[in-house]
Write a sequence for this structure.
């Protein structure tokens, strides 16, 4: 089955830029989606199809995807951005499956 | 506004069964694929199962294949997950989530329902 790898944690100071990586074999050939999950809440889609922002999501959130790494970038980080972030793809190799990365805890220092 | 409300969770012994429900409102249910995603306490998200808008296609993760059955009732705007032969490692918060037909993402989520499998 397809595997997505994320760093367990990323720390950033308020006002700075955070980047969260999501690694997978030739992930650049897949469509990557990103979710934000704040403590005690359900996940929320923040980036879809590699780099598109759903309606209502801050323009500070952006994504890219190439080669073996997809990246979520959050500019001008705010305290309210502190959350777990998950990347997700759909894979058809070996049967249809929806795959999540292990998640990255973003800490705003 | 999209609303997804899960119910049917609870505590059950290993080997037991539970049926989860998800009541949907605020969107045209029959036009969406639907999904179940779970999260064990302190752990990450894990996809469980998906069903197409017409129920024609159903998909399961390897960890639940043969034990769980996903279904839906478009007339009642409801999604279900029948869980049999439950194991301790099925203990998790189970989320219901929508997918716009033709996409592979989860665009709206419920608040989740807790399933605890313990002797």
């Amino acid at each position: 089955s397809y595997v997505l790898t994320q760093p367990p944690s990323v720390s950033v100071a308020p006002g700075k830029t955070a980047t969260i990586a999501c690694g997978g074999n030739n992930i650049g050939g897949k469509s990557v989606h990103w979710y934000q999950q704040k403590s005690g809440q359900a996940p929320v889609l923040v980036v879809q199809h590699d780099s598109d922002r759903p309606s209502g999501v801050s323009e500070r959130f952006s994504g890219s995807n190439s080669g073996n790494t997809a990246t979520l970038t959050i500019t001008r980080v705010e305290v309210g951005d502190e959350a777990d972030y998950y990347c997700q793809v759909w894979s058809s190799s070996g049967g249809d499956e929806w795959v999540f990365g292990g998640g990255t805890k973003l800490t705003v220092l | 506004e999209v609303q997804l409300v899960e119910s049917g969770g609870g505590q059950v012994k290993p080997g037991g069964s539970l049926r989860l429900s998800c009541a949907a409102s605020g969107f045209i249910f029959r036009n969406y694929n639907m999904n179940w995603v779970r999260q064990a306490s302190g752990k990450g998200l894990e996809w469980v199962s998906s069903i197409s808008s017409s129920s024609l296609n159903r998909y399961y993760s390897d960890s639940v294949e043969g034990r769980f059955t996903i279904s839906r009732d478009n007339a009642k705007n409801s999604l279900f997950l029948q869980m049999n032969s439950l194991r301790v490692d099925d203990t998790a918060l189970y989320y219901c989530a929508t997918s716009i037909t033709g996409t592979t993402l989860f665009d709206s989520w419920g608040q989740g329902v807790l399933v605890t499998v313990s002797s």
